[in-house]
Amino acid sequence: MKIYVRIRRAPRPSRLVVAAVALVLLLAQGAWAISYDLTAGAFTKTMPGGQIVTMWGYKLTGTADPFTSPGPELTVPTGETTLTVNLTNALPAGPAHSPTLHDTSIVIPGLIATGQAPVYQTIGAIPKNRMTSFDRVATPGGGAVTYTFQNVRPGSYLYMSGSNPALQVEMGLYGPAKRLAAPGQAYAGVAFDTEATLILGEIDPAMHAAVAGGTYGTPVYPSAFDHHPKFFLVNGEPFTSTRAPVFVGAANQTVLLRILNAGLQIHVPATTGAYMTVVGEDSYEKDHPRRQLALMLAPQKRLDVTMTVPDGKTLIYDRTLDVVNANIAGPGGMMVFLQSGAAPIPTCRGDLNQNGQVDASDLQIFLDSPEFGRSNCTVSAPCATDYNGDGRVNMRDLRLINSWVGTCPAPAAAVVEPAASSGAPALSRGGKPPLNGDFDGNGSVDHKDLRLMLDAVDDPACAAGDCAADLNGDGKIDTADLALFKAAMLASGKKGKK
Amino acid sequence: MKTSAKKRTMRALGLAAILILGLFATAQAKVDGLYNGANPTFNLTAATGYIVGGDGAVLHIWGLSPQGGPVQYPAPTLIIPQGSTVTVNLTNQLAEPVSLVFPGQTNVQATGGIEGLVTREAVPGGTVTYTFTAATPGTFMYQSGSNMALQIEMGLAGAIIVRPAGFAIPGNMTAYGTADTAYDQEILYFQSEMDHRIHEKVDSGQASLVDLTTWFPYYWFYNGRNAPDVFSAAGVPWLPNQPYDCFPHLLPGQKMLLRIVGAGRDMHPFHHHGNSATLIAVDGQVLESTPGSNNPDLGEVLFTQPVLPGQTRDVIFSWNGNELGFDIYGHVATDPILEVEVFAAATLQDPLAETDTGVNVAAPSQGAFPKRRAFRAVLTSGLATDPAREVVVLRMDDPAQPNILTVVKRGQEGTTTPASWPANTSAVIGTYHGQIFAGPADNRFPVTLPDQKDLTMGAFYSGSPFLGAMGTLPPGEGGFNLNNGLAFMWHSHSEKELTNNNIFPGGAISIAIVEPFGTTIEQSAH
Question: Quick one: DSSP state of residue B72?
């Protein structure tokens, strides 16, 4: 029996709600499906040189997050094999000459959506039925489609638009997805210490201007045949002198790089120094990993690469030398530095992706990090996310970063752990196993209960081994309780649906 | 484009000179470069210069010059003994900062100069020093680490060859120090391209107008030369800034190591006509199942090498004429069988009687012999004390009975006299070669060669299909194949790259010559 999880939320949920609930799902083990709600929409981006281009991207539905390209990373938990994406189309309507041009869908090469049904259309004067979408489409103005992908193997994936993809993927409708074989293992036995995703893309500003102006598909810009990119992107950004490096933890650790090509051209990720070891390709493990300095990465290809990153900065760049920004002299384009060693000082404590604020993606990074669960952080082997400095990265640190969401605490400021809750979660279990997680008694197990539960982590009553938040009654509030909480939330959600 | 009438005249004279000088030249298969012994220091200067395209175009480049020498395109090949601590002093005579990176080398340190994006850089007029340890053998590249899209296009890239410990010419020529990486000849294929429009803008002080996103190459180079310049000998005076040639020569059965370096921006499908070849290493890393063994047991047999930008490939090629369907060596039936010709051996099922007209081959080797095609073989006793061998021509007449091989002709090896079967005949050793063209009429299969009027000649055709034989040629044909070897084009299979600025032939063309036995092939000096 398959159980499909819908992330339930209040009509106007806060960003935190969605993030927190989604994160609990990520943690859980078992035969549950993971579900993501994505909305496709347009935004603008200022390129080096000042040019403003219209982009298309994704965000988590219902959040105040901006649209981004690439879209949010979709993580399928280790113990799960089904990924559900609920897609909503908030793109502007297609032009009059091609009204279905902005209909969109999600495909994940290497996975097949249940009930996949290509869309055929007769376009223009040519009496010929042509496929315009690989799967069912969500129409602009809020159209929605659910895609369910089963049998997700460990590996790296590229999700992207399956509708007019030569146009829509170039516009920015792509993002990374992944599944680990086990915590800290890309494939069974292929261990790593930290990981980073590098997703390549391109922008031809003329194409974007044509889409924005409704002239794509007209003699002004007939098709992607005329695609001549001027900007070359890693994770949606071209290189500039101010681009922050990707921090990959302590020096000489094994870093797993998931390198994906969402562009329309072949690129060759390369290093100027250390070797990369190709451990997987297209979500299949390599029997005999090769050590290479330059990698063949055709469009839509996915490579899993491990690398020992020495202290300092290590350049990953495109050896086809798309390392310029339009006609601006000097380096740019498809380049990014990995940085290891001492952690860079972030703008805000907890701002793990260094975007200037602690938000849902930082929570996700926190939970995805192999550091989560470590109990041996030391000065020589520090944990960047051990916020309270107790040598462990645990629920208390999760509670801290959770409490910072939406703010930007100064890195130098003292860490103040939230006061222990005296609320319902700290109440005695009374020997009963009620434990539905509905601590506030409002009839549903939801984000408020999660907050309460995290607050109870430091409660003396719980430390004494008898509190309701300790769902399994083992004397500690830990990830096992998070998993139970999730189950309770699911049950609550199903009840609510009836 | 600065192609002048004078230049064209010089080019014509140059070609004539090749033809005349070439008659006295020794065949070569060698890698030229800078060799300064163990723990070497290389003093290199980045500077501007000009090279000559295969069509006579004068092309502005940025290159590196070895101490006291002219600026080179590509940068000098550095030949280094394994384990060396290498020092590279880079002096900058260009108008912008320049640096070098050494992918795949260990413990690279940069001192002097200024802090750059990727590594330390030499400012105009300044110097920066790099040291590294050439810890492992193999084929590598070094290139600019500054403003890479422009500087590598302009020419700031070169090859590094690290010789394994114990390497010696002759005596112990291996790519990676192990038996399965041994070779007899070696050649470098340093591949690059050029969009001359960019170079013209830089040359005329309009570098700020360069838009590298519109890059579109017009010239393709092997070792810094376009065809037909690749055939001119290394170091010829009329190509002072392009000192390396690309003209491989090998003998039948020899192993040739191809060190292929992708230094440009595009992937080039490098095709070695004549035979498939074994890829033994990529980026200086042997394709091995046991890490560190340098035993290429995971080597791949390929017919075309997709050469990535930034990649090096070590490939071992060999050629012996098997399976052509005719005997390239022009044997008479009873000529000795050459070691390189042997393709299969089998024991005999039954003792051979003098009256037998066929042999019965034991399984499992019977399937190794060709069907319905005559081939030369020797029947041997297999006894060390009785080396008498009888040469026969055999043919499998009925593929349904692959163990029965009819004796078509027989004679003692090295003579024309049929003799008795050797005593205790127990084994057969065969060659793949089929029809025998040469020799006395009664000793050869009837074959009619095409009329000359039906043939298209080429500069590398000797007039004869046989190795080492010269046939008649129409006036003006041939001349590039001095010892009457067999010529195979080794080239990019992106066929548009076989041009110089849209004129065929040119660009990424080279010719490999399989020379007849006895030809002296000059080896690398270091």
Answer: B
CATH topology of domain A232-359: Immunoglobulin-like (2.60.40)
C-alpha torsion sign, points A232, A237, A242, A248 = negative
State the architecture of B5-318 in CATH terms: Sandwich (2.60)
Q: Tokens 């390189």 sit at which residue?
A: B340
Tokens of B4: 């002048």
Check A268 against B309: CB less than 8 A apart.
yes
Q: For chain A, what are the domain ranges?
A: 15-195, 232-359
- Sorted by sequence, the CB contacts under 8 Å of residue A23 that are 6+ apart come out as A363, A364, A367
Structure tokens at A124: 């223009």
**Domain B5-318 identical in fold to domain B339-443:** no
Dist CA A380 CA A394 (whole Å) = 19
Residue ranges per structural domain of chain B: 5-318, 339-443
Residue pointed to by tokens 């924005």: A212
> What b/e string do you get for A45-78 counting C-beta neighbours within 10 Å, with b at 16 or more?
bebbeebebbbbbbbbbbbebebbbbbbbbbbbb
- pLDDT per residue, tens digit, chain A (498 aa), is 333 333 333 333 334 334 444 444 444 433 457 899 999 999 999 999 999 999 999 999 988 889 999 999 999 999 899 999 999 999 999 999 999 999 999 999 999 999 999 999 887 777 788 899 999 999 999 999 999 999 999 999 999 999 999 999 999 999 999 999 999 999 999 999 999 999 999 999 999 999 999 999 999 999 999 999 999 999 999 999 888 899 998 899 999 999 999 999 999 999 998 899 999 999 999 999 999 999 999 999 999 999 999 998 999 999 999 999 999 999 999 999 999 987 666 678 888 877 778 877 787 778 767 677 777 777 767 788 888 888 888 888 888 887 887 888 887 777 877 665 556 666 665 545 455 677 777 777 766 677 777 777 767 667 676 777 787 777 777 777 777 776 776 666 544 333
Q: Report the residue from B153, B285, B310 with minimal CB separation from A319.
A: B310
CB < 8 Å & 24+ apart, contacts of A183-186? A183/A78, A183/A370, A183/A373, A184/A370, A185/A154, A186/A154, A186/A155, A186/A256, A186/A279, A186/A280, A186/A304, A186/A306
d(CA A372, CA A231) in angstroms, rounded, equals 36
Contact assignment for B285 to A229 by CB distance below 8 Å: no
**For residues A57 and B390, what is the distance between their CA atoms, to the nearest angstrom?**
79
Min Cα distance A271 → chain B (Å) is: 7
CA–CA gap between residue B22 and residue B5 (Å, rounded): 25
Q: End-to-end alpha-carbon separation of chain A, Å? A: 19
Q: Are the beta carbons of B333 and B439 closer than 8 angstroms?
A: yes
User: Quick check: B519 and B483 in contact, CB under 8 A?
Assistant: yes
Exposure string for B72-84, b = 16+ CB within 10 A, e = fewer? bbbbbbbbbbbbb
Three-state secondary structure readout of B494-517: CHHHCCECCECCCECEEEEEECCC
Touching A: B residues 141-180, CB under 8 Å: 145, 147-150, 152-153
Strands B41-52 and B85-92, by their bridges, are: parallel
ipTM score for this prediction = 0.88
Q: Environment class of residue B170 by beta-carbon count within 10 Å: exposed (0-12), middle (13-18) or buried (19+)?
A: exposed
CATH 2.60.40.420 fits A15-195, yes or no: yes
Cβ-contact A195, A257 below 8 angstroms: yes
Chain A residues lying within 8 Å of B214, measured CB to CB: 228
Question: Alpha-carbon distance A392 to A398, whole Å?
Answer: 11
Put simply, whether A230 touches B (Cβ < 8 Å) is: yes
Residue B306: is it exposed, middle or buried by C-beta count within 10 angstroms (0-12/13-18/19+)? middle
Could you say which architecture CATH assigns to the domain B339-443?
Beta Barrel (2.40)
Instruction: Find out whether B391 and B307 touch, Cβ atoms under 8 Å.
Output: no
Cα–Cα distance for residue pair A209/A219, rounded to 1 Å: 14
